[in-house]
Amino acid sequence: xxxxxxxxxxxxxxxxxxxxxxxxxxxxxxxxxxxxxxxxxxxxxxxxxxxxxxxxxxxxxxxxxxxxxxxxxxxxxxxxxxxxxxxxxxxxxxxxxxxxxxxxxxxxxxxxxxxxxxxxxxxxxxxxxxxxxxxxxxxxxxxxxxxxxxxxxxxxxxxxxxxxxxxxxxxxxxxxxxxxxxxxxxxxxxxxxxxxxxxxxxxxxxxxxxxxxxxxxxxxxxxxxxxxxxxxxxxxxxxxxxxxxxxxxxxxxxxxxxxxx
Length: 261
Prior knowledge:
Order of helices and strands: EHEEHEHEHEEHHEHEH
CATH class: Alpha Beta
Number of domains: 1
CATH superfamily: NAD(P)-binding Rossmann-like Domain
Strand content: 15-25%
Largest sheet: 7 strands, parallel
Shape: globular
Helix content: 25-40%
Structural class: alpha/beta
Number of helices: 8
């Protein structure tokens, strides 16, 4: 199976590439230079069509991630790029799409509660709002054009667990690769939302949809703590420990049109 992996130069892309290369023929793409990868802006429909041409599926990791981005900052990387890729999939008859969504879609919910896939969205900023759009755009193309789609609301995909808040929603590269594999191969898939989380004794997301599709996480967050791990009790208000979205929910919401003023 020939897979287009976007955002290959990012931290998550670099962790996933060697795992996915064991099972798939990858075409890597990024806005930043990366040896052996296509370089270009996926918000350009012609480049997106070129990148998708000849592929069997797309795994879309690329996007702008930050708590303090404005709406204008996200327009090209997080809106136009995903729409350009989906339209390229339609035109090139690519029938599998895996969208890297985010737990920040639920970021303003309180972390003392667990969240299911069907719970009302509570995006914690303009990055999260763009992921709401990405899920909706993916659903539209799945239902209109029968592109089998898995939206993975990734928790925290760092190489190690750095603190007690992120421990509750952390995912290992190995488990994330397993979820992506479900998106690429499952015959039961039409359009589904799952959470990208590994095992955790006090996890935030039950992840019933993923389990129904066959997801069986291999790694435990408590066993993957960094040497400088900060327990939940040590986190301050600036870390936003009371929110699912952490610091993204605690930071002030920036002026959405700051770049235009």
